[in-house]
Amino acid sequence: MSQPPPPPPNEPPKSGGFGPPQPPQQPQNQPPQPGAQPQPPQPPAQQPGYGYPQTPPPPQQPGYGYPTAPQPPQPQPGYGYPGGQPNPYAQPTAYGQPAPYGQQPPGYGGQPGYGYPPTAPQPAVDGGRRKGGAQAAIIVSAVVAIALIIGGGIWYSSSSGGDGRKDDTAHSGGGGGADGKDGKDATGGTSGGTEKVPANTASKVLFEVPAPKVEGTTSITVYGSWLTSKAYVKTGVASVTGYDPDKGTELWSVKLPGPVCTASRQSTDDHLTAIVYEPAMPTKAKPSHGCSQIAALDLDAGKKLWTRTVKNGDEPVRLDNVTVSGRTVAVGGTSGGAAFDISTAKPLWSPKPTDTCYDAGYGGGPKLVAVRKCGSYDERQLHIQTIDPKTGKVISEYKMSPGIDYAAVVSTDPLVVAADVGDSAGDGSGISDFFSIDNKTGKLRTRISAPGKEYAARCDDISKLEYCNGLAVGADRLYIPTEEHEGTGQYSRTNEVVAFDLGTGRQTGQRADAGDGSTLTPLRMDGPNLIAYKRGPYNKGGRIVSLDGGSFKETTLLENPATGPGHDAETGMLPNYSEVIYRQGRLYLSGVFASTSALKKDLVVAFGATG
């Protein structure tokens, strides 16, 4: 499905830009107004799990597993379960074999070479792109408080997998790892990684947090979850709350005047991060007040350090994304953006829009990457820029071919972006190709073809540039899952995870089969190894597994209960539409929407190993 064209600079976005796209049952499939909260995904409530046999439907129904629009699954009976649908892979094809560079894959853009990069990279130039500190054309609000807490390391993860630790996010260089007899090393950890295999991998429910009630509006976003050595932190309706990681007791809560629109997936080593929120709660008369407030949070102390706004003239800018890189908070939207020091709130720089260029947003973490849109409204060209987080100076730049309207930042080091070239993905995932780019030179290393009908990774929220799900980058490789397809058993569905070399664009030969009735979703790296979530059939709980970086041998780290309230809560947390954190025997699943639904739901369900 084609994604909507971007609005021109200095105009608000035509869609709210928060969360997965609106469900298609809305009248005439109209997008929300700027800043409006979207409809939430509605996973099945207490229905039998994946693989549960159902009466086969008439054969004329469409094949299972291919969505008709870029949206989260709707609460139809049997979502994620086979239901006897016709086999969409009756004519099997090889997964993800990329076309040779320079040749046209089928269906791209309707003309030879559409969307392919130029034969030579463009030189990176600053060209007065940004204004520094005192010269920045921004007005900021007063400081609420400033604090700097020095502490240990922070662990963060989400459905895309990054957890904020350098050895658990993106890696460059070769992978590998010893292949022990049982997939474990001599210390009890998986080969080459830091995750230890618990003495008893069977888990129990540590705690559940009920979903908050929403009044006067259909749904409110609750993006953001983090795990530190002291607290599990989760956004709620107009709040951010820290919980004891084992007991779930509330440690602290920061109240906000309005709902959280988006949260940084990154954080600093001393537990600081940033969020964007509305200045007031939505009402029937005014369903959105605009996502204009930026705040820095101390995740251990439970403090809001400061609040700022960015203005375009006299109006506050509506912000679509926020990220953290080093000590810098970078925020962006179609009408402007800014960068601040995370501990002092000092303005560092702001993007300098021109008649034809503006920063669409940023990806953070080890490096800071800007996606800058240039050209007229109907002739966009994206510039992927690695920038200095302290000054905003452009370090390197890669210009994507005209006709590629949107790109998401999958990883900043190594630099990988995803794009739907010529709207060819066809499944609403926002991904048809991945681009591996050299951070230092701005040269394209390789391009990886990943047709939406074959692969299940998603970057379907075009305004949140680093909110891609179901993939991981490490050891100079890209790990992505295939789409579900028929297994060997009756009514069974399954998928695989495959690896691509970021230097050559070719598959490495590593392939992990989920097994009949199960599906695998990459979460993050653990040294050279891949941590993945295995969603089981109806009579099994989910699992956390480690895939050895060399052999891809699977080691189970955690296995959740097959029955009971925890199992029911887990089946409602679909990995592509939830936030997933796993660390040393503890698993946290959380939702990203709160709604007026009368169904009993959890905001958070946490599991821990019993031994």
From TrEMBL:
Keywords: Membrane, Transmembrane, Transmembrane helix
Biased composition (Low complexity): 84-106
Pfam families: PQQ_2
TM ranges: 136-156
Chain positions covered by the region annotation Disordered: 1-130, 158-197
Domain Pyrrolo-quinoline quinone repeat: 293-508
Compositional bias of kind Pro residues: 1-12, 20-46
Protein name: PQQ-binding-like beta-propeller repeat protein
The organism of origin for this protein: Streptomyces doudnae
